[in-house]
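Researcher: Let's try something more involved. This one mixes different molecule types, so please make sure each is placed in the same coordinate frame as the others.
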Amino acid sequence: QLQLQESGPGLVKPSETLSLTCTLSGGSISDSSYYWAWIRQPPGKGLEWIGNVYSSGSTYYNPSLRSRVGISGDTSKNQFSLKLNSVTAADTAVYYCARCPIRWSSLDSYCYMDVWGKGTTATVSS
Amino acid sequence: SYVLTQSPSVSVAPGQTARITCGGNNIGTKKVHWYQQKSGQAPVLVVYDDSGRPSGIPDRFSGSNSGNTATLAISRVEAGDEAAYFCQVWHSGVIFGGGTKLTVL
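Model: All components are placed in one shared frame. Result:
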């Protein structure tokens, strides 16, 4: 059974880079049936998709974050990672990683998140 | 950009049916997915592809999607169903609705 575990520093200074890692157990990041996703949730607010990475290294990003975000996979460690640079207090949130099965409609591929990590809190503060 | 609209809150008595809606332009042409998030926990997928139920989700949870509105229905509501519910579609990426807080009276 697939499990996902987020890890990374809980505190980041403003203007610096937030770096998080998601480690898989019971599954492989090389599985071509899935995207691997990052989602965040600011305190008391809703869910915000950050982006997806595919086994080939292809990425999809939220347009509102695209200029500051990078997501990559490491097949040797069975992990995928998030980097968000130039952070501000508005980036304070619980960050989740998730598995995203790839589905096909008549027009496009799409996905939804069927397995989630427990989440890790990242606070931006000096 | 594509916007999904959910009412902030819904209240229902135990044993009744709760209906949570998700509005979007021609949302009936898209596949809609629903997540349940209990306080302090990660979201859980409860409905995928409009009306599919993942393994382990009770058949009290059902979904429908037509026109400009998708609906998550929870029948025979229990206290344990109290949570926030989020709808989601794909539109050049993942789009979430703002979430609906379900209160069981």
